[in-house]
Amino acid sequence: MIKILTQSTQFKEIKDFFEEIGQISLFTTRFFREAVNPPVEWKELFRQCYIIGNQSLFLVTVTGFIMGLVLTLQVRPTMLEFGAESYMPSMVGISIIREIGPMITALICAGKIGSSMGAELGSMKVTEQIDAMEVSGTNPFKYLVVTRVLACTLMLPLLVIAADTVGLLGSFFIEYTKGAVTPVLFFNKVFMTIEFGDLLPSTIKSFFFGLVIGIVGCYKGYTSKKGTAGVGTAANSAVVVASLMVFLVDLIAVLAADIFYDL
Amino acid sequence: MEKQTSNTIRLGIFVTIAISLFIAAIYYIGNRQNLFGTSFRITTVFNNINGLQTGNNVRYNGINVGSVEAIFIESDSTVRVNLALQEEMKNFIKSDATATIGSDGLVGNMLVNINPGKGGLLPVENGGEIASFTRIDPNDLLKTLGNTNENIAILSLNLLEITEKLNEGQGTLPMLIRDDQMAKNVQTALLNLNKTSQNVQEMTRQMQTSVESVLGGEGMLGYILKDTTFMYNLAQFTGRLDTQLILKTEPLIINLNQSSEAILAASTELKKVMETMNEGEGTVATMLNDTASAADIKTILHNVEEGTAKFDENMEALKHNFLFRRYFKKQEKARKKAAKNQNKNEKTSQSITYKNNKDIL
Fold it and tell me: What is the extent of the structural domain holding A47?
């Protein structure tokens, strides 16, 4: 009997999982359909861009700077052992621009922006503000979801560039204090090694990171249920799923870049 | 409303800075690959490109001047590599420049090195081709290194054997090393050599001094070399000597000539006599040529010898005969007396000489 119950519970979980994937797919399709159809809520879009971009900038740059410092401090002794100290700027540059910068920024945004989106839209949902918007003739999806997802998609690559730059500055800070490298030499060596095959895939995948974080955050908030408790669940699951999706997108992006750029 | 405008301005600043950084990054990377600005293209052909890829750097005298634009297989054994170079390098790369494939450090990326030509030729034109030099394949290098290692192993074994023999004292070399006397001899020889060289040095110095003094006109030789009148006098003297010599020696030579003619005539006569003797004419020729006469003469001489020996025996017998014994004893006594007187005279003269020397001292 218990066995049957377990089986039925598992079956329900699996069914719920695929149902959620289907719902997210429909949500994404609706986003693209609404995004390309005018009018665009420019004011709300800029407001969301400011919230997502400017208000996350400090957190992202501080994290990026610390990552640059830590990476250099951790790798430097090993590179010194091999007498490859001169390769430090190249190595750190490639690491930060290819992977560390985009991933750290995306995870921070998944935590900060995804949770805020889930919580904000979830609370609007449970307090029936979204229903009120529909009644008043405003398209809540276009106003709330499209602007947030677009802002997230557009701002995340810019945050990644900021994180990369500050991360390289952090690396330079350590190299400057521990070694004897000038700023010109450091950044010359960084750009001597970096190619379009490093910069462009990481920038393109940042757009997808932003899209995924925005979609997951908005979906979890927009579809939250069960009253105020559902708000917390929406915020929590938005962070978890968005982070997981970031890793998944990163894997796909690396595989795709490997095909196009022969990394 | 005011706050919203302020936020939008902040957003604009952030977006502008971020996009500027992105464009700057693209520019730096693109500039390195000569995507921006004018460039000129040259091509070269390699047999083996050792993993060179599109986008790898091109260096001229160690400076990055461009990148590899395209690589494609031309035939089954050649690979054509197109290089995009900075426009300002056009005047420096001559048509006899050569391209080689190298690497940026031991583990760095592959790159193309352009080695400048000898100069004097025209710069390579856009789309022109330069010669290439395929570097040694690392596998070949390792193979050669392996052979060298084997040779070194054999050499070390041989060296070990030699060293063992040296330690055991076999052969000439250990003897030379261990023989103290040899070492002393060598040391002595070196000391002698040192002394000799010192002597030679001293001699050279003295010779130099002498030559300097001679060249300075000192001494007889210097006077001869320096004095111009001496040479004139010497020439005159030589001339006079020649004249006197000719005058004095001329009659002598005439006499000598006459004597030689007389000797020639005499030798002719002698030759005739000898010929006559050889032919067996006359007494002397008979004596020389006739073997019977020669045997007779030999017999006569034998008889004379025997006669003389017998005469000696007779004389010895006379000495012991009582008639003549007294005469021979008297003669013997007189001879001994004369010898005694002579010895006495010699001793007297020696004592006188010793006495005189003593007086002188």
Answer: 40-261
Q: For chain A, positions 62-101, list CB contacts with chain B under 8 A.
A: 84
Q: Given the DSSP bridges, would you call strands B63-73 and B57-60 parallel, antiparallel or unpaired? A: antiparallel
ipTM for the predicted complex comes to 0.72
Contact B10 A50 (CB under 8 A): yes
d(CA A22, CA A16) in angstroms, rounded, equals 10
Cα(B57)–Cα(B85) distance, integer angstroms: 10
Asked if residue A191 lies in contact with residue A94, where contact means CB atoms within 8 angstroms, the answer is no
Flag whether A34 is in a domain.
no
- Judge whether A54 is closer than 8 Å to chain B, CB to CB: yes
CB atoms < 10 A from the CB of B137, how many? 12
Which residue numbers in chain A have pLDDT < 50?
none
Q: How far apart are the first and last CA of chain B?
A: 152
Answer whether residue A25 is part of any domain: no
pLDDT computed for residue B292 by the predictor: 75
How far is Cα B326 from Cα A76, in angstroms, rounded to an integer?
143
| Structural domain count, chain A | 1
Coil, strand or helix at B134: coil
Of B17, B32, B55, the CB nearest to A191: B32
Q: At what angle do helices A55-81 and A101-109 cross, to 10 degrees?
A: 140
The Cα B100–Cα B47 span in angstroms is 11
Using an 8 Å CB-CB cutoff, list chain B residues near A47: 4, 7
Q: Nearest 10 degrees: CA dihedral of A172, A173, A177, A182? A: 40
The answer as to whether A31 is a domain residue is: no
The neighbour count for residue A65, using CB atoms within 10 Å, is 19
Q: What is the pLDDT of residue A209?
A: 92
Residues of A whose CB is below 8 A from B15: 49, 53, 158
From B9, which residue of chain A is nearest by alpha-carbon distance? A50
d(CA B343, CA A132): 181
- Across the interface, which of A46, A191, A195 has its CB nearest the CB of B11? A46
> Mean pLDDT of successive 10-residue segments in chain B (361 residues)?
72 83 81 70 87 82 84 87 85 85 74 81 83 72 85 91 80 72 82 90 88 78 73 82 84 86 88 77 65 78 88 82 78 86 80 65 55
Interhelix angle A227-261/A196-222, rounded to 10 degrees, is 160
* B86 φ/ψ angles, rounded to the nearest 5 degrees: -65, 145
Q: Is A1 part of a structural domain of the chain?
A: no
pLDDT digits (tens, 9 = 90+) for A178-212: 877 788 888 888 888 888 888 888 889 999 999 99
